[in-house]
# Entry
Amino acid sequence: MTVSVTNQITRTANDLHSLFAPRGVAVIGASSEPGKLGAVMAEAVSAYEKPVALVNHRNELMHGSIDDAVQEEGLIDLAILCVPAAATAGVLRATADAGVTAALVCAGGFAEAGGLGAEYQRDVVDVIRETGLRVLGPNTSGFFVPHQRLSASFVPGISDITAGTVAVVSSSGGVNHSLSFRLDQAGVGVSVGVGIGAGVDVTAADVIEYLATDPATGAIALHIETVADGPRLMNAIRQASKNKPVVALIVGQNDVAEFAQSHTGSLATSWRITNAALQQSGAVLVTDEDELVSVVSALSRARIQPHPNPGVALITGQAGPGLIAADHLSGANVSVPPLAEATTEELSALLPPLTYQGNPVDTGRPGNTFPAVIRAVAADPEIQALGIYGILEPVVDFPHALSSADIGTTAAVLSVDGPSAQVRGVVREGTTAGVPVVSGPTALARSLTGLVRDSKAQHSLSQPYLHARGVELGTGPWDEASAKELLQRAGVKTPPMARTTSHQGAHAALAKINAPVAVKLIDAEVLHKTDIGGVHLGVATPEQLDTALTALDNAGAKEYLIEEMAEAGIDLVVGARRDPVFGILVLLGLGGTAVEVMGDVSLGVHPLRVGTAEAMVDGLAVGRMLRGWRGNHPIDLEGLAQIMSTLGQSLEENPHVNEIEINPLRLTRDGLVALDAVIVTARNPIEKD
# Structure
C-alpha cells in the first residue's frame, strides 16, 4: 500500500484496474461531429468488448448524464472526459457521485496554461481528494491496452498496434505513442501504453505498481521528464524490476538546477539525480529512444540471472560487424572474456582453421555446424549471454539455429542484416520463438549492454544495506576545525591540528606538529577560504609562520588553524545533501577546485548498499586511477563506503542539517584523509561567496 504525495489518499495498485480493465466505459462529451474530440474518442473506444456509453445532454441519441448512463448500461468503471478545462472538476464530481471510480482527462488548459488554468487544476485535485476518484491526466493523449482492444486515445492508428509484452509508461502522450509504434514495428508489440500528462493523481509510480502484477506485461519502457515523489518511484521500480525489467529514458541532461552552497549541491542536477536514483532502484538507463526500443525488446524475451559482472560472447559470420559490436561493448564496460581452453578446442573441431575462435567467435560463412558452435560458446563457464550476428543467406536459418542449439539459461540476442523483407521475416520468426531479434551490430551491442546492466542492477539489489552510525552534529555554526572534530568522532582520519586565537598559540602548535604545516583562517561564514587568501601552505619556520599569520590578520582572521601537511595524493570530494525529491543524496567526485571544472561525479541515494561505493568509483572518469592504475595507491573501498554512509546517516539523524561535504578527501598511501570539511544548516543557509 502506498500514499500519493499529490492527494494524500491511500491507494493500491488494484485501484487502476478500473482504468485499464474497466467493466464499462462512458465517454462524457461524446459527439457525432467528425473531428471533434468527443467523436474521435467515441470511435476509438467503440471496439472495446465491454459496454460503452456515450454521454451528451445536447444529443438526444446519447445519454443525458453519467447517472443515466450508469442506470441504463450497468457497471461503468471508467469515464473519458471530452469537456473543457473549466467544466472538468464539476463533471468529475458528478462522475464520482454516479459510482464511477476512474477517469481520463485529455483536455489541456490547466496549470500548464497559467492564469485560470491553475485554478481549474486545483479544483480537480480537490475533487480527487474528496472522492478518491482515480484520474489520469489532464493534458494527455490517453492510453491503450491492445490485448483488450481498449483504445482510449485520440491518436490515429493506435488501434492497429499489436498486443505484446512491453508496457510503455511515459510522461508525454506523444512519446508514449511514438515508442509504442516503434515497438510494434520491432515485432514486440505493447501490453499497455500510458501517457501520464500532468499527473495530478495517477503517476508513473502508480502505473508501474499496477504493471508489476499485470500478467500481460513482461517488461516496462519508462520515459521520465519530471519526478514528484522520488522515494515512491524508486520503490515501484525496485519492486517491479525483480520480475520485470524496467528500461528508463530520462530527459533533461542539459538542465541545470540551482546551485547549493557547496560543490555537492551544484554538481547534483536534477537529471543526474534522477539517473542515479533510478539506476540504484534497478532500472536500466538508456540515452535515446532507439536504444530504449532495442534494449526493452531484448529484455522482454531474454534476461541474465543476477550477476556482479556477466560475461558476453559474440558469434558472428562477418568479422567487421563483430568488431563494431565488441568495440561498443568495451566502451560500455561490458565484459567480453576470453573463452576457456576446452571451449576453443571444441570450436576448432567445428570451424574452418582460418577463423578466429576466441571472443568474438568468427565462424566465417556459417554452415551446418552453426548450432553446435552456439551451444559450445553458451556452455562456457565465463559466458552468461550471447550476441549472434549474421547477414541473411540461405545457408543458415538463424532463429532455428539458435532455438535448436539448446543453450539452457544463457541469454541470447540475434542481430541480422539483409533485404528488408527478409529481415522482417526473421523478426516474425523470432517473435514466435521468443528470441530477441534486432538489426545491425550497434543495436546488438546496445541490447547486450542492457541485459548486462539489468543483471548487475538486480545483483546490487540483492546486497544488504550498509550500516553506519551517524554523528550528533549539534546546532552549529561549524567552522573547518569543528567540522573536522566531528569527522574524527565518526572515524574519518584528519591531519594532526590545533586551533588558537593568538600568534603565541600558533607558534606553540608549530613546535608540536610535524612541519611543514598548513595555516588557515577559521571562520564558519567563509566557505572558500582560498578565495580571500585564507590558506597558507608549506609553512616550516617561525619566520614563515609570522608572515602567514600577518596575511591572515589582514584577511580578517580572528582564529587560526595549524595543521600538519598531508602527503601528496588524489583529491576527492565526498558529500551528503538533502534533495527535495529523492531525499538524502551522497556524492563522490574528483575533489579540490577541479570538481567545479571537470564535473566528474557519481551520485547515490542514502542508504547505500554493499557494493555501491565500488560502483560509484567505477562510474568516475578517474575510476581506474583510484583503483591503483600506474602505481597510484588503490582506494580503500570499504573505508570509502563507510565514510559515505556515515555522512548520509548523520543527515538522517540531524534534520536541521542540510549538507555535509569533505573536500578534499585525499587518497594517500596511508589511506583517506579529510583535509577540509563544510557543514551547512538547513535553517540558516550560508550565502555563496
User: Anything to note?
Assistant: The longest strand covers residues 657-668. Residues 1-10, 255-268, 684-689 have pLDDT under 50 and may be disordered. The chain has five domains: 1-139, 140-300, 303-461, 496-564, 570-681.
